[in-house]
Design brief:
InterPro entries: Macro_dom-like (IPR043472). There is one protein chain. The protein has 197 residues and is mostly helical. It is built from seven helices and four strands.
């Protein structure tokens, strides 16, 4: 956690967060947290007694990001296994789906005071992964609609592989300048090497 958005987390919460996350990944995930999986760990945001971290937290006031509430948990959900271009993948969808499922599972057993009621999330795969911001937002919205709002049951439980392919194409192609966004209702136009279908 020493580059990009991860560095911001390490500076704010302290290096203890990285050490504890690595330990959880070693013990619970056999040493590797893959795309489509997530873990949740406490941040100890207000319980860190390091003067350096407390000074950084004063400078980087994140209270505005969470309506003045402490950020109790960090959800680690990778968008790529190693740094690479994920712009033509469904990695933002898979990652945000993992976040939603992890939060749901966490809340099933957590005390009411430790339940996660909101999630602050950066653009997934939009920096090193070079995913266009619109595509990332589209994929994250798809995960939210399916796994929080219960929409698109035909995709979660498809009758055939063609349904999954069409949805996959929609999520990987959305965001190009030459492809219009999908309509809200009705048939989604698809672009391929063979034209529209």
């Amino acid at each position: 956690m020493d580059g990009g958005i991860d560095m911001a987390y390490s500076k704010h919460f302290g290096w203890q967060l990285q050490r504890r996350l690595q330990e959880v990944i070693r013990k619970e995930k056999y040493g590797e947290l893959l795309v489509g999986d997530a873990v949740i760990i406490p941040t100890f945001e207000h319980g860190i007694d390091s003067e350096e971290v407390q000074e950084l937290q004063k400078r980087d006031d994140w209270a505005k990001c969470n309506e003045g509430q402490p950020i109790k948990f960090m959800i680690s959900a990778p968008t790529m296994r190693v740094p690479l271009d994920v712009s033509k993948t469904v990695n933002a969808y898979s990652t945000f789906r993992a976040v939603i499922i992890a939060v749901s599972q966490h809340n099933e057993t957590a005390e009411s005071t430790d339940q996660i009621r909101s999630v602050l999330c950066p653009g997934l795969g939009t920096a090193i992964g070079t995913m266009p911001h619109q595509r990332c937002a589209h994929q994250m919205r798809k995960a939210l609609e399916m796994y929080v709002l219960g929409r698109d049951e035909h995709i979660r439980n498809p009758k055939d592989l063609g349904t999954v392919w069409k949805e996959h194409d929609d999520m990987t192609e959305f965001g190009h300048a030459d492809i219009p966004p999908p309509p809200k209702e009705g048939k989604v136009q698809k672009w391929s090497l063979f034209g529209l279908f």
